[in-house]
User: Fold these one by one.
Assistant:
Number 1:
Amino acid sequence: MINIAIVDDQELMRDGLRRILSTYEELQVVATGKNGFEALEICKQHQLDVLLLDIRMPEMNGVETVKRLKEEKCMVKVVMLTTFEDEEYIVQAMAYGASGYLFKDMPYDQLAECVKEVHEGRFMMPQKVAEVLAKNIYAPEALKKRENPYDFTEREVQIAEMMKDGFTNKQIAKTLYISEGTVKNYVSNIYAKTQTENRVEAANLLKSIF
């Protein structure tokens, strides 16, 4: 049984999701909430497997909530509920440890399957989310404006920027439509060019130049 909590400021959305997910015998909705503060309390009171978290909420939004959960070393897997209008928050939530993104209008069966996939440890990013990231965050014209003191290639700049924001190799691969092995090769190149030896050291250096 997968224990789920749903946190969304829209009552119709969270009640609708609760009713839908409760129809699947392997899924159990144990709590609902309407803002980030309630999400934090729910995570303290329940043994959750997956938290469905609206990215835009009053009082404390989804991004800040994911950050707080990470700081408190909460192990729940967080799936952000998002729309096309939320692109400014998507990268931040991913960097803070979100396990995936789901559009609120996706088919119910697909939603349930995504919850199961996340519970099994997979990172879920619908193609539409990846396209939003690629188009609006890592567009070539934006990359040209960034400093490049280490003579990074365009792809290395993309990956260095994401490393700086805390992305894992898996998240980078998913966003850029390349394999994890390819990402590892680029990360090794970045280590060599910056003369750093590990992810933390490289990320700290990259924060000072991007």
Number 2:
Amino acid sequence: MRWFSVLWLVCFLMGCATSGNNGQSEPSVSRLAKSDIDEVIEVHQQAVMAQLKRLMFKLYKRNPNLRHDRDVRTIKESVERTFSRQVDFIYPEWAIIRKPTDIIRLALDERFQGDRVLAYIIGLRKMLMASYDNHSEFFYLTSIDQQKLYNSARNIEIAAWLLAKKRDSEGNLLMLSDSLSGEVRNLSYQRIFGKMIATQDNLAQIIAQKNGRIIKTFVVRAATLAFLPI
């Protein structure tokens, strides 16, 4: 009987599923190992990553000459390829850069000669995933820090400001996003950033209430380029 119990436990941990009398599978082990808050976290993470993918697609469409693989892939294929890679995928050109926010800065440095959109999105993705402690699934024993989530929202604000303001020595924007003077007004980029910020802030408040902790708030002055630690 003892060995049967051990066997059942091993099977449970390895994700075995049994069938009921109606022929349908029982809930998966991963589903049973999640609390309601775990599912809330995953929904928020999926939402912010979906918005980030949309941002990358729109930036490539707005800045076609910046895309490094424009001659071999469509924009959609470029975006899907980027997000199909693990967040810790090593890009040789940024291998020695330790902080994701430094990659964001690099993307909007006039001296940078590479794919600015790719660098910008990679930096944001790494920064956001760090706010989830680089987890993509959450279970009962998985915990995340509400302060990291809050800080990531402020960093998105700074990244959005940089995108809208950074110019070269001749006064040209390094990456185009919102409409320029004389163009049809386009606020779609602002809406994407707004949704990402709201998603991270909302989850930060949920986690803070769950843990009974207070978030240390900051007044972000984007012009100082002072990204908050994650």
